[in-house]
Amino acid sequence: MIGKRKKSLKMWFYFTLIVLGILVVSFFIMVALVYIFYRSSLENFNPAVSKYLVIPFLLTGIVVGTVISIFVSKRFLSPIDRINRAFAKVSKGDFKVRLPKESKIKEIAEMNRSFNSMVMELSNIETLRSDFITNVSHEFKTPIAAIDGYATLLENPDISESERTQYTEKILSNSKKLVSLSENILYLSKIENRNFIDETAPYRLDEQIRKELLLLEPMWSKKNIDFDISLPKITYVGNESLLRHVWHNLFTNAIKYSGEGGKIKISLFAKDKKIVFSISDNGVGMSEDVKKHIFEKFYQGDTARKSEGNGLGLTMVKRILDIEGGEISVESEPGKGSEFTVILPN
Protein backbone atom coordinates (compact mmCIF):
# COMPACT_ATOMS: atom_id res chain seq x y z
CA MET A 1 0.00 0.00 0.00
CA ILE A 2 2.85 2.36 0.87
CA GLY A 3 4.59 1.51 -2.44
CA LYS A 4 1.47 2.40 -4.44
CA ARG A 5 1.16 5.68 -2.54
CA LYS A 6 4.79 6.57 -3.35
CA LYS A 7 4.24 5.87 -7.07
CA SER A 8 1.12 8.04 -7.05
CA LEU A 9 3.05 10.86 -5.38
CA LYS A 10 5.79 10.58 -8.03
CA MET A 11 3.26 10.98 -10.84
CA TRP A 12 1.73 14.03 -9.16
CA PHE A 13 5.23 15.44 -8.63
CA TYR A 14 6.06 15.12 -12.36
CA PHE A 15 2.82 16.78 -13.42
CA THR A 16 3.35 19.55 -10.87
CA LEU A 17 6.84 20.25 -12.26
CA ILE A 18 5.49 20.44 -15.82
CA VAL A 19 2.68 22.83 -14.88
CA LEU A 20 5.16 24.89 -12.87
CA GLY A 21 7.47 25.01 -15.90
CA ILE A 22 4.65 26.29 -18.10
CA LEU A 23 3.82 28.96 -15.53
CA VAL A 24 7.48 30.04 -15.24
CA VAL A 25 7.88 30.35 -19.03
CA SER A 26 4.64 32.32 -19.27
CA PHE A 27 5.78 34.56 -16.42
CA PHE A 28 9.09 35.41 -18.12
CA ILE A 29 7.32 36.14 -21.39
CA MET A 30 4.94 38.51 -19.63
CA VAL A 31 7.82 40.16 -17.75
CA ALA A 32 9.69 40.66 -21.04
CA LEU A 33 6.53 42.02 -22.60
CA VAL A 34 5.91 44.47 -19.77
CA TYR A 35 9.56 45.55 -19.76
CA ILE A 36 9.66 46.25 -23.52
CA PHE A 37 6.32 48.01 -23.34
CA TYR A 38 7.56 50.12 -20.43
CA ARG A 39 10.82 51.04 -22.22
CA SER A 40 9.01 52.03 -25.38
CA SER A 41 6.59 54.18 -23.44
CA LEU A 42 9.45 56.02 -21.76
CA GLU A 43 11.39 56.79 -24.90
CA ASN A 44 8.64 57.58 -27.30
CA PHE A 45 5.17 56.56 -26.31
CA ASN A 46 3.16 55.60 -29.34
CA PRO A 47 0.04 53.50 -28.69
CA ALA A 48 -0.06 52.14 -32.23
CA VAL A 49 3.55 50.96 -32.09
CA SER A 50 3.09 49.53 -28.60
CA LYS A 51 0.06 47.58 -29.81
CA TYR A 52 2.08 46.02 -32.64
CA LEU A 53 4.89 45.19 -30.22
CA VAL A 54 2.52 43.38 -27.87
CA ILE A 55 1.04 41.14 -30.59
CA PRO A 56 4.29 39.20 -31.41
CA PHE A 57 4.90 38.46 -27.75
CA LEU A 58 1.33 37.28 -27.26
CA LEU A 59 1.66 35.02 -30.28
CA THR A 60 5.01 33.74 -28.98
CA GLY A 61 3.44 32.96 -25.60
CA ILE A 62 0.58 31.10 -27.32
CA VAL A 63 2.97 29.07 -29.51
CA VAL A 64 5.22 28.16 -26.56
CA GLY A 65 2.21 27.16 -24.45
CA THR A 66 0.80 25.07 -27.29
CA VAL A 67 4.11 23.27 -27.89
CA ILE A 68 4.43 22.49 -24.19
CA SER A 69 0.80 21.28 -24.07
CA ILE A 70 1.37 18.99 -27.06
CA PHE A 71 4.51 17.60 -25.42
CA VAL A 72 2.69 16.94 -22.14
CA SER A 73 -0.24 15.37 -23.97
CA LYS A 74 1.94 13.10 -26.05
CA ARG A 75 4.25 12.08 -23.22
CA PHE A 76 1.69 11.59 -20.45
CA LEU A 77 -1.82 11.47 -21.88
CA SER A 78 -1.16 9.22 -24.89
CA PRO A 79 -0.09 6.22 -22.76
CA ILE A 80 -3.17 6.74 -20.59
CA ASP A 81 -5.35 6.85 -23.70
CA ARG A 82 -3.67 3.64 -24.94
CA ILE A 83 -4.40 1.94 -21.62
CA ASN A 84 -8.01 3.15 -21.75
CA ARG A 85 -8.47 1.66 -25.24
CA ALA A 86 -6.85 -1.58 -24.06
CA PHE A 87 -9.31 -1.80 -21.15
CA ALA A 88 -12.18 -1.26 -23.59
CA LYS A 89 -10.99 -4.29 -25.61
CA VAL A 90 -10.67 -6.42 -22.47
CA SER A 91 -14.21 -5.48 -21.41
CA LYS A 92 -15.40 -6.93 -24.75
CA GLY A 93 -13.65 -10.23 -24.06
CA ASP A 94 -10.39 -9.68 -25.95
CA PHE A 95 -7.70 -11.11 -23.66
CA LYS A 96 -4.97 -11.05 -26.32
CA VAL A 97 -4.39 -7.31 -26.08
CA ARG A 98 -0.98 -6.30 -24.68
CA LEU A 99 0.72 -2.99 -23.85
CA PRO A 100 4.40 -2.14 -24.52
CA LYS A 101 6.61 -3.42 -21.71
CA GLU A 102 9.09 -0.57 -22.08
CA SER A 103 8.48 3.16 -21.66
CA LYS A 104 10.64 6.22 -20.97
CA ILE A 105 8.43 6.90 -17.97
CA LYS A 106 9.07 4.30 -15.28
CA GLU A 107 5.56 4.51 -13.79
CA ILE A 108 3.92 4.01 -17.21
CA ALA A 109 6.13 0.96 -17.88
CA GLU A 110 5.14 -0.54 -14.50
CA MET A 111 1.48 0.17 -15.22
CA ASN A 112 1.75 -1.55 -18.61
CA ARG A 113 3.41 -4.61 -17.08
CA SER A 114 0.71 -4.81 -14.39
CA PHE A 115 -1.96 -4.56 -17.09
CA ASN A 116 -0.34 -7.37 -19.11
CA SER A 117 -0.16 -9.59 -16.01
CA MET A 118 -3.82 -8.89 -15.26
CA VAL A 119 -4.92 -9.76 -18.80
CA MET A 120 -2.88 -12.99 -18.76
CA GLU A 121 -4.53 -13.98 -15.47
CA LEU A 122 -8.00 -13.17 -16.85
CA SER A 123 -7.20 -15.24 -19.93
CA ASN A 124 -6.21 -18.19 -17.74
CA ILE A 125 -9.42 -17.83 -15.71
CA GLU A 126 -11.48 -17.74 -18.90
CA THR A 127 -9.74 -20.89 -20.14
CA LEU A 128 -10.40 -22.63 -16.82
CA ARG A 129 -14.04 -21.56 -16.93
CA SER A 130 -14.43 -22.88 -20.47
CA ASP A 131 -12.70 -26.17 -19.57
CA PHE A 132 -14.88 -26.48 -16.45
CA ILE A 133 -18.08 -26.11 -18.48
CA THR A 134 -16.82 -28.62 -21.07
CA ASN A 135 -15.88 -31.16 -18.39
CA VAL A 136 -19.14 -30.73 -16.46
CA SER A 137 -21.10 -31.21 -19.69
CA HIS A 138 -19.15 -34.38 -20.46
CA GLU A 139 -19.52 -35.79 -16.94
CA PHE A 140 -23.28 -35.21 -16.95
CA LYS A 141 -23.78 -36.37 -20.52
CA THR A 142 -22.29 -39.85 -20.01
CA PRO A 143 -24.57 -41.11 -17.17
CA ILE A 144 -27.63 -39.36 -18.63
CA ALA A 145 -27.07 -41.11 -21.96
CA ALA A 146 -26.68 -44.44 -20.12
CA ILE A 147 -29.89 -43.89 -18.15
CA ASP A 148 -31.75 -42.98 -21.33
CA GLY A 149 -30.40 -46.06 -23.14
CA TYR A 150 -31.25 -48.57 -20.39
CA ALA A 151 -34.66 -46.99 -19.80
CA THR A 152 -35.41 -47.44 -23.51
CA LEU A 153 -34.41 -51.11 -23.26
CA LEU A 154 -36.76 -51.57 -20.29
CA GLU A 155 -39.67 -50.51 -22.47
CA ASN A 156 -39.28 -53.73 -24.44
CA PRO A 157 -41.89 -56.19 -23.02
CA ASP A 158 -39.98 -59.19 -24.38
CA ILE A 159 -36.83 -58.85 -22.22
CA SER A 160 -36.10 -61.45 -19.57
CA GLU A 161 -36.33 -60.84 -15.85
CA SER A 162 -32.53 -61.04 -15.46
CA GLU A 163 -32.07 -58.43 -18.20
CA ARG A 164 -34.69 -56.22 -16.55
CA THR A 165 -32.83 -56.47 -13.25
CA GLN A 166 -29.49 -55.72 -14.96
CA TYR A 167 -30.83 -52.65 -16.75
CA THR A 168 -32.45 -51.38 -13.55
CA GLU A 169 -29.17 -51.72 -11.67
CA LYS A 170 -27.37 -49.80 -14.43
CA ILE A 171 -29.93 -46.99 -14.21
CA LEU A 172 -29.57 -46.82 -10.42
CA SER A 173 -25.76 -46.87 -10.68
CA ASN A 174 -25.69 -43.98 -13.17
CA SER A 175 -28.26 -42.08 -11.12
CA LYS A 176 -25.94 -42.32 -8.11
CA LYS A 177 -23.09 -41.00 -10.26
CA LEU A 178 -25.20 -37.98 -11.20
CA VAL A 179 -26.11 -37.34 -7.55
CA SER A 180 -22.44 -37.66 -6.49
CA LEU A 181 -21.30 -35.35 -9.28
CA SER A 182 -23.93 -32.74 -8.42
CA GLU A 183 -23.04 -32.84 -4.72
CA ASN A 184 -19.32 -32.55 -5.43
CA ILE A 185 -19.77 -29.61 -7.81
CA LEU A 186 -22.02 -27.78 -5.33
CA TYR A 187 -19.66 -28.41 -2.44
CA LEU A 188 -16.59 -27.41 -4.46
CA SER A 189 -18.28 -24.16 -5.53
CA LYS A 190 -19.14 -23.54 -1.88
CA ILE A 191 -15.53 -23.79 -0.69
CA GLU A 192 -13.82 -22.46 -3.84
CA ASN A 193 -13.85 -18.81 -2.77
CA ARG A 194 -13.53 -19.49 0.92
CA ASN A 195 -10.28 -18.19 2.39
CA PHE A 196 -10.76 -18.66 6.13
CA ILE A 197 -11.96 -21.26 8.62
CA ASP A 198 -15.10 -20.68 10.65
CA GLU A 199 -16.62 -22.76 13.48
CA THR A 200 -13.33 -24.26 14.60
CA ALA A 201 -13.24 -26.44 17.69
CA PRO A 202 -10.91 -29.01 19.28
CA TYR A 203 -11.80 -32.63 18.54
CA ARG A 204 -10.22 -36.09 18.37
CA LEU A 205 -8.70 -36.39 14.91
CA ASP A 206 -7.90 -40.11 15.30
CA GLU A 207 -11.54 -40.89 16.13
CA GLN A 208 -12.78 -38.95 13.09
CA ILE A 209 -10.44 -40.92 10.81
CA ARG A 210 -11.61 -44.26 12.28
CA LYS A 211 -15.28 -43.33 11.78
CA GLU A 212 -14.74 -42.38 8.14
CA LEU A 213 -12.92 -45.66 7.51
CA LEU A 214 -15.74 -47.68 9.13
CA LEU A 215 -18.33 -45.93 6.96
CA LEU A 216 -16.57 -47.38 3.91
CA GLU A 217 -16.56 -50.92 5.32
CA PRO A 218 -18.86 -52.35 2.57
CA MET A 219 -16.45 -51.00 -0.06
CA TRP A 220 -13.19 -52.40 1.37
CA SER A 221 -14.61 -55.68 2.73
CA LYS A 222 -15.82 -56.55 -0.79
CA LYS A 223 -12.16 -56.48 -1.91
CA ASN A 224 -10.84 -58.25 1.21
CA ILE A 225 -8.42 -55.39 1.84
CA ASP A 226 -6.06 -55.70 4.80
CA PHE A 227 -5.23 -52.62 6.91
CA ASP A 228 -2.15 -51.62 8.89
CA ILE A 229 -3.37 -48.79 11.12
CA SER A 230 -1.51 -46.58 13.59
CA LEU A 231 -3.80 -43.89 15.01
CA PRO A 232 -2.64 -42.61 18.42
CA LYS A 233 -4.77 -40.16 20.36
CA ILE A 234 -4.39 -36.68 18.79
CA THR A 235 -6.54 -33.61 19.39
CA TYR A 236 -6.82 -31.10 16.56
CA VAL A 237 -8.39 -27.63 16.45
CA GLY A 238 -10.15 -27.07 13.13
CA ASN A 239 -13.36 -27.47 11.16
CA GLU A 240 -14.49 -31.06 11.68
CA SER A 241 -17.04 -31.11 8.84
CA LEU A 242 -14.48 -29.83 6.32
CA LEU A 243 -11.78 -32.37 7.17
CA ARG A 244 -14.26 -35.25 7.02
CA HIS A 245 -14.26 -34.83 3.22
CA VAL A 246 -10.46 -35.11 3.16
CA TRP A 247 -10.36 -38.53 4.85
CA HIS A 248 -13.38 -39.81 2.92
CA ASN A 249 -11.84 -39.00 -0.47
CA LEU A 250 -8.39 -40.32 0.41
CA PHE A 251 -9.83 -43.60 1.73
CA THR A 252 -12.13 -43.96 -1.30
CA ASN A 253 -9.22 -43.50 -3.71
CA ALA A 254 -6.96 -45.95 -1.87
CA ILE A 255 -9.67 -48.63 -1.83
CA LYS A 256 -10.74 -48.01 -5.41
CA TYR A 257 -7.24 -48.38 -6.84
CA SER A 258 -6.23 -51.34 -4.67
CA GLY A 259 -6.57 -54.81 -6.09
CA GLU A 260 -8.30 -57.83 -4.58
CA GLY A 261 -6.64 -58.68 -1.24
CA GLY A 262 -4.63 -55.44 -1.29
CA LYS A 263 -3.06 -53.76 1.71
CA ILE A 264 -3.53 -50.18 2.91
CA LYS A 265 -1.32 -48.57 5.55
CA ILE A 266 -2.60 -45.63 7.60
CA SER A 267 -0.57 -43.64 10.11
CA LEU A 268 -1.01 -40.49 12.16
CA PHE A 269 1.50 -38.70 14.39
CA ALA A 270 2.45 -35.27 15.76
CA LYS A 271 5.90 -33.79 15.12
CA ASP A 272 7.43 -30.30 15.39
CA LYS A 273 4.08 -28.55 15.98
CA LYS A 274 2.59 -30.35 12.99
CA ILE A 275 0.23 -33.28 12.56
CA VAL A 276 1.22 -35.74 9.84
CA PHE A 277 -1.23 -38.22 8.28
CA SER A 278 -0.26 -40.70 5.57
CA ILE A 279 -2.13 -43.36 3.65
CA SER A 280 -0.42 -45.77 1.25
CA ASP A 281 -1.68 -48.61 -0.92
CA ASN A 282 -0.09 -51.25 -3.13
CA GLY A 283 -2.46 -50.62 -6.02
CA VAL A 284 -1.98 -49.51 -9.62
CA GLY A 285 0.04 -46.37 -8.81
CA MET A 286 0.44 -43.49 -11.22
CA SER A 287 2.95 -41.97 -13.62
CA GLU A 288 4.85 -38.69 -13.16
CA ASP A 289 2.54 -36.95 -15.63
CA VAL A 290 -0.55 -38.03 -13.69
CA LYS A 291 1.02 -36.85 -10.42
CA LYS A 292 1.45 -33.35 -11.87
CA HIS A 293 -2.27 -33.00 -12.57
CA ILE A 294 -3.82 -35.17 -9.87
CA PHE A 295 -5.30 -32.21 -7.92
CA GLU A 296 -6.83 -30.50 -10.96
CA LYS A 297 -10.58 -30.41 -11.55
CA PHE A 298 -11.99 -33.39 -13.47
CA TYR A 299 -8.56 -34.90 -14.02
CA GLN A 300 -8.50 -38.70 -13.97
CA GLY A 301 -5.40 -40.81 -14.51
CA ASP A 302 -7.36 -43.48 -16.32
CA THR A 303 -8.19 -41.60 -19.50
CA ALA A 304 -10.67 -44.26 -20.57
CA ARG A 305 -12.75 -43.27 -17.50
CA LYS A 306 -13.41 -46.90 -16.64
CA SER A 307 -13.16 -46.41 -12.91
CA GLU A 308 -15.77 -44.74 -10.74
CA GLY A 309 -15.36 -41.11 -9.83
CA ASN A 310 -15.53 -37.72 -11.49
CA GLY A 311 -12.12 -36.19 -10.86
CA LEU A 312 -13.28 -33.74 -8.18
CA GLY A 313 -12.41 -35.61 -4.97
CA LEU A 314 -8.72 -34.71 -4.78
CA THR A 315 -9.46 -31.16 -5.95
CA MET A 316 -11.73 -30.77 -2.91
CA VAL A 317 -9.08 -32.31 -0.66
CA LYS A 318 -6.47 -29.81 -1.85
CA ARG A 319 -8.82 -26.83 -1.47
CA ILE A 320 -9.93 -27.84 2.04
CA LEU A 321 -6.33 -28.26 3.18
CA ASP A 322 -5.47 -24.85 1.72
CA ILE A 323 -8.25 -23.33 3.84
CA GLU A 324 -7.06 -25.22 6.92
CA GLY A 325 -3.49 -24.06 6.34
CA GLY A 326 -2.36 -27.61 5.58
CA GLU A 327 -0.49 -29.35 2.77
CA ILE A 328 -0.80 -32.53 0.74
CA SER A 329 1.76 -34.40 -1.34
CA VAL A 330 1.86 -37.70 -3.21
CA GLU A 331 4.52 -40.29 -3.98
CA SER A 332 3.71 -42.99 -6.50
CA GLU A 333 5.07 -45.36 -9.13
CA PRO A 334 3.11 -47.34 -11.73
CA GLY A 335 2.38 -50.83 -10.40
CA LYS A 336 3.79 -50.06 -6.94
CA GLY A 337 0.95 -48.10 -5.38
CA SER A 338 0.64 -44.56 -4.04
CA GLU A 339 1.22 -42.73 -0.77
CA PHE A 340 -0.56 -39.49 0.12
CA THR A 341 0.79 -37.37 2.97
CA VAL A 342 -1.26 -34.67 4.71
CA ILE A 343 0.37 -32.11 7.02
CA LEU A 344 -1.81 -30.02 9.34
CA PRO A 345 -0.75 -27.19 11.66
CA ASN A 346 -0.92 -28.20 15.33
Q: Termini distance?
A: 32 Å
What structural class is derived from the secondary structure elements?
A: alpha+beta
| Order of neighbouring strands in the sheet with most strands | 2-4-5-7-6
Strands, total number: 7
Looking at how many chains there are and whether they match, the oligomeric state comes to: single chain
Unreliable spans are 1-5, 303-307
Output the CATH class name of the largest domain. Answer: Alpha Beta
CATH architecture of the largest domain: 2-Layer Sandwich
Percent of residues in β-strands: 5-15%
Give the count of structural domains.
Answer: 3
CATH superfamily of the largest domain: Histidine kinase-like ATPase, C-terminal domain
Percent in helix: 55-70%
Largest sheet: 5 strands, mixed
**N to C succession of SSEs:** HHHHEHHEEHEEHHEE
Shape: elongated
